[in-house]
Design a protein that fits this description.
It contains 14 helices and 18 strands. It is α/β, with parallel strands linked by helices. The strands form three sheets. The protein has an eight-stranded mixed sheet, with helices on both faces. It has an eight-stranded mixed sheet with strand order 3-2-9-5-6-7-8-4, with helices on one face.
Length: 528
Protein backbone atom coordinates (compact mmCIF):
# COMPACT_ATOMS: atom_id res chain seq x y z
CA UNK A 1 0.00 0.00 0.00
CA UNK A 2 1.29 3.42 -1.02
CA UNK A 3 1.95 5.76 1.95
CA UNK A 4 1.99 9.55 1.45
CA UNK A 5 4.82 11.56 2.99
CA UNK A 6 3.86 13.31 6.24
CA UNK A 7 4.10 16.84 4.79
CA UNK A 8 1.73 15.89 1.95
CA UNK A 9 -0.87 14.68 4.45
CA UNK A 10 -0.58 17.94 6.41
CA UNK A 11 -0.91 19.97 3.22
CA UNK A 12 -4.05 18.11 2.17
CA UNK A 13 -5.57 18.53 5.63
CA UNK A 14 -4.98 22.27 5.50
CA UNK A 15 -6.38 22.43 1.99
CA UNK A 16 -9.61 20.92 3.30
CA UNK A 17 -9.77 23.02 6.48
CA UNK A 18 -9.06 26.48 5.05
CA UNK A 19 -12.13 26.61 2.76
CA UNK A 20 -14.27 25.40 5.66
CA UNK A 21 -12.90 28.17 7.89
CA UNK A 22 -13.43 30.71 5.13
CA UNK A 23 -17.04 29.68 4.94
CA UNK A 24 -17.60 29.65 8.69
CA UNK A 25 -20.88 31.35 9.53
CA UNK A 26 -20.88 34.87 10.90
CA UNK A 27 -20.76 34.60 14.70
CA UNK A 28 -23.85 35.58 16.68
CA UNK A 29 -23.53 36.34 20.39
CA UNK A 30 -26.76 34.93 21.84
CA UNK A 31 -25.83 35.83 25.41
CA UNK A 32 -25.43 39.48 24.39
CA UNK A 33 -28.77 39.35 22.58
CA UNK A 34 -30.43 37.97 25.71
CA UNK A 35 -29.09 40.93 27.72
CA UNK A 36 -30.19 43.37 25.02
CA UNK A 37 -33.68 41.88 24.90
CA UNK A 38 -34.03 41.93 28.68
CA UNK A 39 -33.03 45.60 28.94
CA UNK A 40 -35.02 46.68 25.89
CA UNK A 41 -38.22 44.85 26.78
CA UNK A 42 -38.23 45.09 30.58
CA UNK A 43 -36.61 48.46 31.26
CA UNK A 44 -37.59 50.38 28.15
CA UNK A 45 -37.47 54.18 27.98
CA UNK A 46 -39.16 54.56 24.58
CA UNK A 47 -42.35 56.16 25.93
CA UNK A 48 -40.43 58.64 28.07
CA UNK A 49 -38.21 59.70 25.16
CA UNK A 50 -41.19 59.94 22.79
CA UNK A 51 -43.18 62.05 25.28
CA UNK A 52 -40.46 64.67 25.57
CA UNK A 53 -39.73 64.82 21.84
CA UNK A 54 -43.41 65.11 20.85
CA UNK A 55 -45.77 66.36 23.55
CA UNK A 56 -43.23 68.55 25.34
CA UNK A 57 -41.03 69.88 22.53
CA UNK A 58 -42.59 68.98 19.18
CA UNK A 59 -43.00 69.99 16.42
CA UNK A 60 -39.29 70.25 15.62
CA UNK A 61 -38.91 72.35 12.50
CA UNK A 62 -35.24 72.88 11.62
CA UNK A 63 -33.82 76.13 13.05
CA UNK A 64 -36.87 76.66 15.27
CA UNK A 65 -36.80 77.19 19.06
CA UNK A 66 -38.62 73.86 19.43
CA UNK A 67 -35.87 71.79 17.85
CA UNK A 68 -33.21 73.58 19.87
CA UNK A 69 -35.08 72.83 23.11
CA UNK A 70 -35.66 69.20 22.10
CA UNK A 71 -31.99 68.78 21.21
CA UNK A 72 -30.82 70.27 24.49
CA UNK A 73 -33.15 67.88 26.34
CA UNK A 74 -31.73 64.94 24.37
CA UNK A 75 -28.14 65.97 25.16
CA UNK A 76 -28.97 66.28 28.88
CA UNK A 77 -30.71 62.90 28.88
CA UNK A 78 -27.79 61.16 27.18
CA UNK A 79 -25.38 62.71 29.70
CA UNK A 80 -27.61 61.26 32.41
CA UNK A 81 -27.29 57.83 30.77
CA UNK A 82 -23.50 58.13 30.84
CA UNK A 83 -22.85 58.44 27.11
CA UNK A 84 -19.63 60.13 26.07
CA UNK A 85 -19.67 63.72 24.81
CA UNK A 86 -23.35 64.25 23.91
CA UNK A 87 -23.24 67.42 21.85
CA UNK A 88 -24.76 69.71 19.27
CA UNK A 89 -22.46 69.97 16.27
CA UNK A 90 -23.21 72.86 13.88
CA UNK A 91 -23.41 72.07 10.20
CA UNK A 92 -22.43 74.37 7.39
CA UNK A 93 -24.48 75.73 4.56
CA UNK A 94 -27.00 78.54 4.46
CA UNK A 95 -30.25 77.01 5.62
CA UNK A 96 -31.94 80.38 6.01
CA UNK A 97 -34.32 81.61 8.65
CA UNK A 98 -36.07 79.54 11.25
CA UNK A 99 -39.86 79.74 11.52
CA UNK A 100 -42.61 78.94 14.00
CA UNK A 101 -46.38 79.30 13.94
CA UNK A 102 -47.59 80.76 17.24
CA UNK A 103 -51.29 81.27 16.57
CA UNK A 104 -53.79 80.31 13.90
CA UNK A 105 -57.53 80.83 13.66
CA UNK A 106 -59.76 80.93 10.60
CA UNK A 107 -63.49 81.51 11.02
CA UNK A 108 -66.17 81.91 8.39
CA UNK A 109 -68.39 84.90 9.21
CA UNK A 110 -70.89 84.74 6.34
CA UNK A 111 -73.08 83.21 5.05
CA UNK A 112 -73.06 81.10 8.26
CA UNK A 113 -70.40 81.20 10.98
CA UNK A 114 -68.18 78.13 11.44
CA UNK A 115 -64.50 77.45 12.25
CA UNK A 116 -62.09 76.13 9.63
CA UNK A 117 -59.58 73.33 10.16
CA UNK A 118 -56.27 74.40 8.66
CA UNK A 119 -52.57 75.09 9.18
CA UNK A 120 -50.23 77.74 7.78
CA UNK A 121 -47.64 76.64 5.25
CA UNK A 122 -44.14 76.84 6.77
CA UNK A 123 -42.02 79.91 6.05
CA UNK A 124 -44.98 82.01 4.97
CA UNK A 125 -45.80 85.27 6.82
CA UNK A 126 -48.73 85.90 9.14
CA UNK A 127 -51.54 88.42 8.88
CA UNK A 128 -50.21 90.98 11.41
CA UNK A 129 -53.39 90.76 13.44
CA UNK A 130 -56.93 89.73 12.61
CA UNK A 131 -58.15 90.50 9.10
CA UNK A 132 -61.64 90.08 7.71
CA UNK A 133 -61.73 89.55 3.99
CA UNK A 134 -63.91 88.32 1.17
CA UNK A 135 -63.11 84.89 -0.24
CA UNK A 136 -62.88 84.37 -3.99
CA UNK A 137 -62.36 81.35 -6.19
CA UNK A 138 -59.40 81.78 -8.56
CA UNK A 139 -57.86 78.48 -9.67
CA UNK A 140 -54.92 79.28 -11.93
CA UNK A 141 -53.65 76.54 -14.20
CA UNK A 142 -52.16 78.55 -17.08
CA UNK A 143 -51.18 82.02 -18.29
CA UNK A 144 -54.72 82.75 -19.52
CA UNK A 145 -56.10 82.26 -15.99
CA UNK A 146 -53.69 84.90 -14.67
CA UNK A 147 -54.91 87.39 -17.25
CA UNK A 148 -58.53 86.62 -16.35
CA UNK A 149 -58.06 87.41 -12.65
CA UNK A 150 -55.62 90.29 -12.95
CA UNK A 151 -56.78 93.33 -10.97
CA UNK A 152 -59.53 91.41 -9.12
CA UNK A 153 -57.76 89.83 -6.13
CA UNK A 154 -56.39 92.68 -3.98
CA UNK A 155 -57.22 92.14 -0.31
CA UNK A 156 -59.03 88.87 -1.04
CA UNK A 157 -58.61 85.40 0.46
CA UNK A 158 -58.08 83.30 -2.65
CA UNK A 159 -59.02 79.63 -3.09
CA UNK A 160 -56.44 78.49 -5.62
CA UNK A 161 -57.44 74.97 -6.64
CA UNK A 162 -60.31 73.15 -8.26
CA UNK A 163 -62.08 70.72 -5.95
CA UNK A 164 -61.14 67.06 -6.25
CA UNK A 165 -63.52 64.25 -5.42
CA UNK A 166 -63.21 62.67 -1.98
CA UNK A 167 -63.59 58.91 -2.30
CA UNK A 168 -64.97 56.69 0.49
CA UNK A 169 -62.53 54.53 2.41
CA UNK A 170 -63.27 50.80 2.46
CA UNK A 171 -59.93 49.57 3.81
CA UNK A 172 -58.20 50.06 7.13
CA UNK A 173 -55.70 52.90 7.19
CA UNK A 174 -53.07 50.95 9.13
CA UNK A 175 -51.63 47.64 7.99
CA UNK A 176 -48.64 45.35 8.37
CA UNK A 177 -46.66 43.77 5.56
CA UNK A 178 -47.93 40.36 4.53
CA UNK A 179 -45.73 37.34 3.87
CA UNK A 180 -46.45 37.75 0.16
CA UNK A 181 -45.34 41.41 0.20
CA UNK A 182 -42.15 40.54 2.05
CA UNK A 183 -41.40 37.76 -0.42
CA UNK A 184 -41.90 40.20 -3.27
CA UNK A 185 -39.48 42.70 -1.70
CA UNK A 186 -36.89 39.96 -1.44
CA UNK A 187 -36.87 39.66 -5.24
CA UNK A 188 -34.45 41.81 -7.23
CA UNK A 189 -36.18 43.90 -9.91
CA UNK A 190 -34.58 44.41 -13.32
CA UNK A 191 -34.61 48.13 -14.16
CA UNK A 192 -35.91 49.35 -17.52
CA UNK A 193 -34.73 52.70 -18.89
CA UNK A 194 -34.36 54.34 -15.48
CA UNK A 195 -32.18 57.20 -16.78
CA UNK A 196 -34.77 58.26 -19.36
CA UNK A 197 -37.64 58.02 -16.87
CA UNK A 198 -35.70 59.98 -14.26
CA UNK A 199 -34.88 62.73 -16.75
CA UNK A 200 -38.53 63.06 -17.73
CA UNK A 201 -39.50 63.33 -14.06
CA UNK A 202 -36.85 66.00 -13.46
CA UNK A 203 -38.06 68.03 -16.43
CA UNK A 204 -41.68 67.79 -15.31
CA UNK A 205 -40.75 68.78 -11.75
CA UNK A 206 -38.76 71.77 -13.04
CA UNK A 207 -41.69 72.86 -15.24
CA UNK A 208 -44.18 72.68 -12.37
CA UNK A 209 -41.81 74.49 -10.02
CA UNK A 210 -41.23 77.32 -12.50
CA UNK A 211 -44.98 77.79 -13.03
CA UNK A 212 -45.67 77.70 -9.27
CA UNK A 213 -43.10 80.46 -8.79
CA UNK A 214 -44.76 82.51 -11.53
CA UNK A 215 -48.18 82.10 -9.90
CA UNK A 216 -46.73 83.12 -6.52
CA UNK A 217 -45.31 86.31 -8.06
CA UNK A 218 -48.72 87.01 -9.60
CA UNK A 219 -50.51 86.71 -6.24
CA UNK A 220 -47.84 88.93 -4.66
CA UNK A 221 -48.32 91.60 -7.34
CA UNK A 222 -52.08 91.38 -6.90
CA UNK A 223 -51.78 91.99 -3.14
CA UNK A 224 -53.89 89.06 -1.92
CA UNK A 225 -54.71 88.84 1.80
CA UNK A 226 -54.00 85.09 1.84
CA UNK A 227 -54.42 81.97 -0.24
CA UNK A 228 -56.19 78.78 0.80
CA UNK A 229 -55.30 75.36 -0.61
CA UNK A 230 -56.97 71.95 -0.09
CA UNK A 231 -55.16 69.22 1.80
CA UNK A 232 -54.19 66.29 -0.46
CA UNK A 233 -55.62 63.97 2.22
CA UNK A 234 -59.13 63.85 3.67
CA UNK A 235 -61.10 62.89 6.81
CA UNK A 236 -59.89 66.08 8.48
CA UNK A 237 -56.23 65.16 7.93
CA UNK A 238 -54.23 68.21 6.87
CA UNK A 239 -50.95 67.34 5.18
CA UNK A 240 -48.75 70.43 5.00
CA UNK A 241 -45.08 71.24 4.56
CA UNK A 242 -43.07 74.25 3.45
CA UNK A 243 -43.58 76.99 0.92
CA UNK A 244 -40.86 75.79 -1.42
CA UNK A 245 -37.09 75.60 -1.66
CA UNK A 246 -34.30 77.42 0.13
CA UNK A 247 -35.32 80.75 -1.38
CA UNK A 248 -38.47 80.78 0.76
CA UNK A 249 -36.27 80.85 3.89
CA UNK A 250 -34.38 84.00 2.83
CA UNK A 251 -35.88 87.42 3.54
CA UNK A 252 -35.30 88.84 0.05
CA UNK A 253 -37.06 85.99 -1.74
CA UNK A 254 -39.51 84.77 0.94
CA UNK A 255 -43.28 84.62 0.29
CA UNK A 256 -45.01 87.94 0.89
CA UNK A 257 -48.51 86.61 1.68
CA UNK A 258 -49.91 83.94 4.05
CA UNK A 259 -50.67 80.48 2.72
CA UNK A 260 -53.02 78.09 4.51
CA UNK A 261 -53.69 74.39 3.91
CA UNK A 262 -57.31 73.57 4.76
CA UNK A 263 -58.97 70.24 5.50
CA UNK A 264 -60.49 69.34 2.16
CA UNK A 265 -63.96 68.97 3.68
CA UNK A 266 -63.86 72.61 4.78
CA UNK A 267 -62.23 73.77 1.57
CA UNK A 268 -64.99 71.95 -0.30
CA UNK A 269 -67.73 73.79 1.60
CA UNK A 270 -66.16 77.15 0.77
CA UNK A 271 -65.67 76.11 -2.85
CA UNK A 272 -69.30 75.09 -3.33
CA UNK A 273 -70.57 78.30 -1.74
CA UNK A 274 -68.44 80.41 -4.06
CA UNK A 275 -69.42 78.34 -7.11
CA UNK A 276 -73.04 79.14 -6.22
CA UNK A 277 -72.13 82.87 -6.21
CA UNK A 278 -72.84 83.19 -2.49
CA UNK A 279 -70.61 85.74 -0.73
CA UNK A 280 -68.18 84.27 1.79
CA UNK A 281 -66.41 86.40 4.41
CA UNK A 282 -63.61 84.98 6.56
CA UNK A 283 -61.94 86.24 9.72
CA UNK A 284 -58.28 85.18 9.73
CA UNK A 285 -55.55 85.55 12.35
CA UNK A 286 -52.10 84.03 11.70
CA UNK A 287 -49.09 84.78 13.88
CA UNK A 288 -45.86 83.36 12.46
CA UNK A 289 -42.41 84.27 13.79
CA UNK A 290 -39.10 84.16 11.93
CA UNK A 291 -35.70 83.50 13.49
CA UNK A 292 -32.69 84.83 11.62
CA UNK A 293 -29.50 83.63 13.33
CA UNK A 294 -30.30 82.93 16.96
CA UNK A 295 -31.05 79.18 16.54
CA UNK A 296 -28.55 77.82 14.01
CA UNK A 297 -28.31 74.46 12.23
CA UNK A 298 -26.87 71.44 14.04
CA UNK A 299 -26.82 67.68 14.41
CA UNK A 300 -27.09 65.88 17.77
CA UNK A 301 -24.23 63.45 18.44
CA UNK A 302 -23.16 61.12 21.25
CA UNK A 303 -20.68 58.23 21.56
CA UNK A 304 -20.11 54.90 23.24
CA UNK A 305 -16.32 54.49 23.00
CA UNK A 306 -14.83 51.24 21.77
CA UNK A 307 -11.76 49.40 22.98
CA UNK A 308 -9.06 48.03 20.64
CA UNK A 309 -10.79 49.41 17.51
CA UNK A 310 -12.03 52.66 19.07
CA UNK A 311 -10.93 54.75 16.07
CA UNK A 312 -13.41 52.84 13.88
CA UNK A 313 -17.10 53.73 13.88
CA UNK A 314 -20.51 52.09 13.81
CA UNK A 315 -23.15 54.78 13.39
CA UNK A 316 -26.85 54.81 14.28
CA UNK A 317 -28.98 57.64 12.93
CA UNK A 318 -32.38 59.15 12.34
CA UNK A 319 -33.60 62.59 11.45
CA UNK A 320 -34.58 64.72 14.42
CA UNK A 321 -36.50 67.43 12.58
CA UNK A 322 -40.17 67.35 11.61
CA UNK A 323 -42.88 69.41 10.01
CA UNK A 324 -45.15 71.58 12.11
CA UNK A 325 -48.82 70.57 11.91
CA UNK A 326 -48.48 67.62 14.29
CA UNK A 327 -45.70 66.87 16.76
CA UNK A 328 -43.51 64.86 14.39
CA UNK A 329 -44.18 61.56 16.15
CA UNK A 330 -43.89 58.98 13.37
CA UNK A 331 -41.79 61.30 11.20
CA UNK A 332 -39.42 61.09 12.82
CA UNK A 333 -39.52 61.07 16.60
CA UNK A 334 -40.02 57.31 16.15
CA UNK A 335 -36.61 56.89 14.53
CA UNK A 336 -34.93 59.24 17.01
CA UNK A 337 -36.54 57.37 19.93
CA UNK A 338 -35.39 54.00 18.60
CA UNK A 339 -31.80 55.13 18.04
CA UNK A 340 -31.56 56.87 21.43
CA UNK A 341 -32.99 53.79 23.10
CA UNK A 342 -30.67 51.45 21.18
CA UNK A 343 -27.53 53.25 22.34
CA UNK A 344 -28.97 53.50 25.87
CA UNK A 345 -29.48 49.72 25.88
CA UNK A 346 -25.87 49.13 24.85
CA UNK A 347 -24.67 51.41 27.64
CA UNK A 348 -27.02 49.94 30.26
CA UNK A 349 -26.06 46.34 29.54
CA UNK A 350 -22.36 47.09 29.93
CA UNK A 351 -21.55 45.00 26.86
CA UNK A 352 -18.00 45.58 25.60
CA UNK A 353 -17.67 47.19 22.20
CA UNK A 354 -14.50 47.01 20.13
CA UNK A 355 -15.53 49.86 17.82
CA UNK A 356 -17.02 53.17 18.90
CA UNK A 357 -20.79 53.38 18.41
CA UNK A 358 -21.92 56.89 17.50
CA UNK A 359 -25.47 58.19 17.54
CA UNK A 360 -26.36 60.93 15.05
CA UNK A 361 -29.72 62.72 15.02
CA UNK A 362 -29.90 64.86 11.90
CA UNK A 363 -31.67 68.13 11.20
CA UNK A 364 -32.59 69.58 7.82
CA UNK A 365 -33.65 66.16 6.53
CA UNK A 366 -37.07 67.41 5.45
CA UNK A 367 -35.39 70.06 3.31
CA UNK A 368 -33.05 67.65 1.50
CA UNK A 369 -30.97 65.50 3.92
CA UNK A 370 -28.97 68.63 4.73
CA UNK A 371 -27.54 67.64 8.12
CA UNK A 372 -26.41 64.14 7.14
CA UNK A 373 -24.99 65.30 3.81
CA UNK A 374 -22.95 67.99 5.53
CA UNK A 375 -21.63 65.45 8.05
CA UNK A 376 -20.61 63.02 5.30
CA UNK A 377 -18.86 65.76 3.33
CA UNK A 378 -17.04 66.92 6.45
CA UNK A 379 -15.76 63.55 7.71
CA UNK A 380 -15.90 61.02 4.86
CA UNK A 381 -16.03 62.38 1.30
CA UNK A 382 -17.66 64.89 -1.03
CA UNK A 383 -19.77 62.91 -3.53
CA UNK A 384 -19.06 65.52 -6.20
CA UNK A 385 -15.30 64.90 -6.15
CA UNK A 386 -15.00 61.55 -4.32
CA UNK A 387 -11.82 62.75 -2.65
CA UNK A 388 -11.78 60.47 0.38
CA UNK A 389 -11.04 61.76 3.87
CA UNK A 390 -9.35 59.65 6.56
CA UNK A 391 -12.66 58.86 8.25
CA UNK A 392 -13.88 57.07 5.13
CA UNK A 393 -11.65 54.08 5.88
CA UNK A 394 -12.81 53.98 9.52
CA UNK A 395 -16.61 53.70 9.17
CA UNK A 396 -17.96 50.16 9.29
CA UNK A 397 -21.67 50.86 8.81
CA UNK A 398 -24.49 53.35 9.21
CA UNK A 399 -27.98 52.15 10.25
CA UNK A 400 -31.02 54.40 9.78
CA UNK A 401 -34.67 54.44 10.91
CA UNK A 402 -37.15 56.70 9.11
CA UNK A 403 -40.22 54.82 7.93
CA UNK A 404 -42.60 55.50 10.79
CA UNK A 405 -43.57 53.55 13.88
CA UNK A 406 -43.92 50.08 12.31
CA UNK A 407 -41.70 47.29 13.53
CA UNK A 408 -38.65 46.06 11.62
CA UNK A 409 -39.32 43.26 9.13
CA UNK A 410 -35.90 43.17 7.45
CA UNK A 411 -33.22 45.31 5.79
CA UNK A 412 -32.88 46.99 2.40
CA UNK A 413 -29.38 45.96 1.33
CA UNK A 414 -28.97 48.92 -1.04
CA UNK A 415 -27.40 46.65 -3.66
CA UNK A 416 -24.67 45.39 -1.30
CA UNK A 417 -24.48 41.67 -2.15
CA UNK A 418 -21.58 40.90 0.16
CA UNK A 419 -23.34 42.01 3.34
CA UNK A 420 -26.35 39.71 2.80
CA UNK A 421 -24.96 36.55 4.50
CA UNK A 422 -23.76 38.62 7.47
CA UNK A 423 -27.14 40.26 8.04
CA UNK A 424 -28.88 36.92 7.48
CA UNK A 425 -27.03 35.50 10.50
CA UNK A 426 -27.64 38.56 12.68
CA UNK A 427 -31.32 38.39 11.76
CA UNK A 428 -31.87 34.77 12.85
CA UNK A 429 -32.53 35.47 16.57
CA UNK A 430 -35.22 37.99 15.59
CA UNK A 431 -37.31 35.88 13.25
CA UNK A 432 -39.65 35.23 16.18
CA UNK A 433 -40.11 39.03 16.38
CA UNK A 434 -41.09 39.29 12.72
CA UNK A 435 -37.73 40.14 11.11
CA UNK A 436 -37.46 37.74 8.19
CA UNK A 437 -36.55 39.55 4.98
CA UNK A 438 -33.43 40.80 3.22
CA UNK A 439 -34.11 42.88 0.12
CA UNK A 440 -31.27 43.51 -2.31
CA UNK A 441 -33.15 46.63 -3.40
CA UNK A 442 -32.36 50.12 -2.37
CA UNK A 443 -34.82 52.50 -0.78
CA UNK A 444 -34.69 56.27 -0.90
CA UNK A 445 -35.81 59.47 0.73
CA UNK A 446 -33.78 59.46 3.93
CA UNK A 447 -30.34 59.95 5.47
CA UNK A 448 -28.65 56.63 4.64
CA UNK A 449 -28.42 57.94 1.08
CA UNK A 450 -25.77 60.46 2.14
CA UNK A 451 -23.50 57.56 3.15
CA UNK A 452 -24.37 55.38 0.16
CA UNK A 453 -23.51 58.28 -2.16
CA UNK A 454 -19.84 58.06 -1.14
CA UNK A 455 -19.61 54.26 -1.15
CA UNK A 456 -20.13 53.69 2.56
CA UNK A 457 -22.44 50.94 3.86
CA UNK A 458 -25.66 52.74 4.77
CA UNK A 459 -28.90 50.88 5.41
CA UNK A 460 -32.55 51.58 6.11
CA UNK A 461 -34.63 48.83 7.72
CA UNK A 462 -37.81 47.41 6.17
CA UNK A 463 -40.72 48.43 8.42
CA UNK A 464 -44.42 47.73 8.62
CA UNK A 465 -46.17 50.70 6.99
CA UNK A 466 -48.89 51.03 9.64
CA UNK A 467 -50.77 54.31 8.91
CA UNK A 468 -47.67 56.29 7.92
CA UNK A 469 -48.69 56.92 4.30
CA UNK A 470 -52.41 57.13 4.95
CA UNK A 471 -52.69 59.28 8.08
CA UNK A 472 -49.54 60.62 9.74
CA UNK A 473 -46.84 61.54 7.21
CA UNK A 474 -46.37 65.36 7.40
CA UNK A 475 -49.88 65.75 8.79
CA UNK A 476 -51.67 67.20 11.80
CA UNK A 477 -52.35 63.62 12.93
CA UNK A 478 -48.66 62.82 13.44
CA UNK A 479 -48.86 62.75 17.23
CA UNK A 480 -47.88 60.54 20.16
CA UNK A 481 -51.12 58.54 19.82
CA UNK A 482 -49.93 57.08 16.50
CA UNK A 483 -46.75 55.58 18.01
CA UNK A 484 -46.76 51.83 18.69
CA UNK A 485 -44.87 51.12 21.91
CA UNK A 486 -44.27 47.41 21.23
CA UNK A 487 -42.93 48.16 17.75
CA UNK A 488 -40.54 50.83 19.07
CA UNK A 489 -39.18 48.33 21.62
CA UNK A 490 -38.73 45.67 18.95
CA UNK A 491 -36.86 48.11 16.70
CA UNK A 492 -34.58 49.36 19.46
CA UNK A 493 -33.60 45.82 20.47
CA UNK A 494 -32.81 44.81 16.88
CA UNK A 495 -30.82 47.98 16.18
CA UNK A 496 -28.84 47.53 19.40
CA UNK A 497 -28.01 43.93 18.47
CA UNK A 498 -26.96 44.86 14.92
CA UNK A 499 -24.79 47.68 16.28
CA UNK A 500 -23.23 45.34 18.86
CA UNK A 501 -22.29 42.74 16.26
CA UNK A 502 -21.00 45.33 13.80
CA UNK A 503 -18.88 46.88 16.54
CA UNK A 504 -17.33 43.56 17.56
CA UNK A 505 -16.66 41.68 14.31
CA UNK A 506 -13.04 41.38 13.23
CA UNK A 507 -13.47 43.24 9.94
CA UNK A 508 -15.38 46.25 8.75
CA UNK A 509 -18.57 45.41 6.91
CA UNK A 510 -18.02 44.84 3.17
CA UNK A 511 -18.56 47.74 0.77
CA UNK A 512 -19.74 48.21 -2.76
CA UNK A 513 -17.37 49.72 -5.36
CA UNK A 514 -16.84 53.45 -4.94
CA UNK A 515 -19.23 55.60 -6.97
CA UNK A 516 -17.82 57.89 -9.63
CA UNK A 517 -17.62 61.60 -8.78
CA UNK A 518 -21.02 63.25 -9.03
CA UNK A 519 -22.80 59.90 -9.22
CA UNK A 520 -25.49 59.05 -6.72
CA UNK A 521 -25.10 55.95 -4.57
CA UNK A 522 -25.00 52.71 -6.50
CA UNK A 523 -27.48 49.89 -6.32
CA UNK A 524 -30.88 48.96 -7.72
CA UNK A 525 -33.55 51.64 -8.14
CA UNK A 526 -35.46 52.51 -4.97
CA UNK A 527 -38.97 51.41 -4.14
CA UNK A 528 -41.17 54.44 -4.78
Amino acid sequence: MFQRPKFVAVFLALALVVPILAQAPEPVDLQAIQLIKDEGFNNSKVNEIAFYLTDVHGPRLTNSPNIRAAAEWAVAKMKEWGLTNPRLEPWEGEFGRGWRNERFSAHVVTPQPFPLIGYPVAWTPGTEGTVTAEAVLAPIENEEDMAKFRGKLRGKIVLTSALRRVEPKFEAQARRLTDEELAQRAQQPVPTSPAEDAEQRRQEFARRREFAQKVARFFEEEGVAAIFEPSPWDAGVVRVGGAGGAETRRPATAPKFPRVMLAIEHYGRLYRLLKANLPVTIELNIQNRFYDSEIGSFNVLADLPGTDKADELVMLGAHFDSWHAGTGATDNAAGSVVMMEAIRILKATGLKLRRTVRLALWTGEEQGLLGSRDYVRKYFADPQTMQLKPGHAKLSVYFNIDNGTGKIRGVYLQGNEAVAPIFARWMEPFRNLGMTTLSIRGTGGTDHLAFDAVGLPGFQFIQDPMDYSTLTHHSNMDTFERLQEADLKQMAVIVAAFAYHAANRNELLPRKPLPKPGQRGQGPPPIL
